[in-house]
Amino acid sequence: MLKFFFLKSLIILSFFFFNIKKANAEVLLFDLSHTKIEISDKNKNADFTIFGFTNSKSSLVLKIKGPNQKVILQKKKKIIGMWSWSKTGEFIYPGLFHYYTNKDDEEIDFEVKKDLFDNVRLIGKDDDNLKKDLIEKKMSLGLFLIKNNSFEVINKKMKNFFKIPVKLPKNSPEGEYTVSLNIIDSINNFESKKIKINVYKPGLSSLIFKFAHKFSFIYGLFSAMIAIGLGLIAGFIFRKYL
Fold first, then answer.
1. Backbone angles phi, psi at 91, to 5 degrees
2. CATH number of 2-202
3. What is the pTM of this model?
């Protein structure tokens, strides 16, 4: 199936190349092996592969961006002799952000890190140190990633065609992702079309995750009832047997 997809993509990409080459334009085309991605412990290979073509000599960056997530920042305060929490701001950032580059130099490294930093938004009192801490934490979990020299040449005789095998971490959030390919140079910053992919996880944990996000109030109420019930049972056992 994958070989058939690649051959089909190769023919389409070649057609575009020979028609656009006359205009001396930079060509940037890509496609994915599939767009519905299942994250499972059983799969040890790449989750999907990106096939592409370009005649550009510029720096290229492929971006995989997950659904946005939100974290509320709180500060502990003492009010009238009682401790309470007050909201000081909130982070909004992609649940996953992976960068794959075709080079490894200072210019592309600067552009990628700047883009990553700009996509982490802090609403409230801005603090660069908080942003850096969040980025470092997400990188340690594999949710933020910068992988240089990751474009693999498919055939030495056709160096314009490349592929990028992608393996998503187990803790990747479910939802809709976007994949885009970018040309970065000193004159302009061109972004290709965006392709959407859907990431999901099989099993009970996925069902609980979806229910918690779609019916957050019911999930919270149900969780509270379970906690109270377990507390009552533990108290009964303690009084009866201890």
1. -95, 140
2. 2.60.40.2550
3. 0.72
